Amino acid sequence: MTDLEMLAVVKKINELFITYRKKFIVQNKKDSDFKFSTIDKYSINDTVVKRHLQGKQTCGIFSGKAFTKFISFDVDTKENSEVDTRYLVDILEREFNIARSDIHVSISGMKGYHVDLYFKNQITNNLARKFYIDVINRAEFTEKQIELRPQHSLGMKLPLGIHEETKKRCWYVDNQTFKPIEDFNYIFDIQQIDPSFLEIEYQDIDMIKVNTHEANEFENVISSVKTDTFEVEDHLEHINYILENNQLKHEASRNNMTYLTSIYLKEVEQLKKSTVIEVLTSIMLNSKRLNIGLISESSTESSIIRETKRIVEVVYKQDYKFTRRNKDVIITKEDIETILKIKKWNLKRLYLIHLIQFRRYATKDNSYYMSYQTMTNFGATTDRGRLRKQIQELEDMQLMKLKQSKAIDEPRTLSTGTIIYKPNVYQMNLSIKKIFENDIDGITIKDNEDISLEKILKMFDDKFQLNLKKKLSYEQYLKVNNAS
């Protein structure tokens, strides 16, 4: 190939495959094995792709965290790969009404194949996975036999490079004869298809289909969010600030804070999507109207409303969380000893509920939000008056402190026209450091695990021989002893 032809192929690879550039994979020989390693110190660029096409170093890509612009079925059934790939292509054509000319097959390097569909617009990874599952189920394959690519956590080798182990070039093949098309020019004949055909197949799913600019913008928002545990604490302080003041705190933070605050309001305060859209729209418009540089002058109110809604909808549809925050919590032997000193069973249980919420969400000053509804969801009484009394009893025992109550949530109140109060803020006189350290005298409570006091006490008794018979009333001991 001439340099000009090579640049044209690189450009087409970019168009069909690459959405996420911040990490990629390369194939190297290590000892006697040829393995792929992840590169994240610099981004994949045209030079990397060119070296791949020249056969100098084979590389691959990842999907973004949210979107992809193609779906690849990675068929690896060894000696049966060609037969199974032919069958898969037939299923896509016959059962899913995809034109055979839009189904592109390439050699994966060993005995397997990649079966690709390329889209004009990007779709969410969740939708891609839903379609993939339906296809392999219809074709009666397992996820081990045919894997989904690309994914954000699993790289996929690009076509047209050299497989380092076999030294064979991974050409596209004719999807009828499966004869390799030993010509780089094939890639120029590939036409991206409109993913709207998925709307016919999935009428019950809210489809998210975006153009490249929108997808890249949202990927940049997600990628820019730092969600290490200590950094999440800083974000929570920032989130609390904008909720309390109905405005952003820093310049150029609109998309970032829309994303983070959406997650917080969905996950911690458990608000409906429509309410979160109203709250954040109010905050962003107010930040714009203050005219103090918090939002760019070029951003119109209509674009702010549109972008806020779009980000919140994606957060809810993809169920984003502070993904790298470990919401598993350690309950220590010391914690259990404190619980055993509390006489009433309902107070023991309520203290445990607050302890877990504290360990998951407390900020640097040991404060954490918790609504009455959240307490009830975790097993506390549904009677609000009784619940307030129980909280007061724990305060009297100096186990926790009600720091703030009856604080009006101004953004939500303004957007709904009804007075809405924020969840109460509490404090515990405990070390937040225990959230992040494995404690050998403790037990881990997994995220989304039922908070059962009986079960937790039984686990500790089994592990540490706490002699619960002496430390609990007869009735309480029976509850624990009968727990399963």
If you had to describe this structure to a student in words, what would you say it looks like?
With 484 residues, this protein is α+β, with helices and mostly antiparallel strands. The protein has 18 helices and 15 strands. The strands form four sheets. Strands 4, 5, 6, 7, 9 and 10 form a six-stranded antiparallel β-sheet that branches. The chain has a four-stranded antiparallel β-sheet with strand order 2-1-3-8, covered by helices on one side. Helix 3 crosses helix 4 (125-139), helix 7 packs across helix 8 (254-267) and helix 9 (273-289) packs antiparallel against helix 10 (301-317). The radius of gyration is 27 Å and the shape is globular. The relative contact order is 0.08.
What is the first-to-last residue Cα distance? 69 Å
Radius of gyration in whole Å, from Cα?
Answer: 27 Å
**Which structural class should the secondary elements be placed in?**
alpha+beta
How much of the sequence is in beta strands? 5-15%
Mean pLDDT: 83
Question: What characteristic shape results from the CA principal axes?
Answer: globular
Number of helical regions = 18
Report the helical percentage.
Answer: 40-55%
What is the strand tally? 15
Contiguous uncertain segments of 5+ residues: 226-232, 433-439
Mind summarizing the main beta sheet?
6 strands, antiparallel
Concise synopsis of the structure shown:
This protein is an alpha+beta fold and 484 residues long. It has 18 helices and 15 strands.
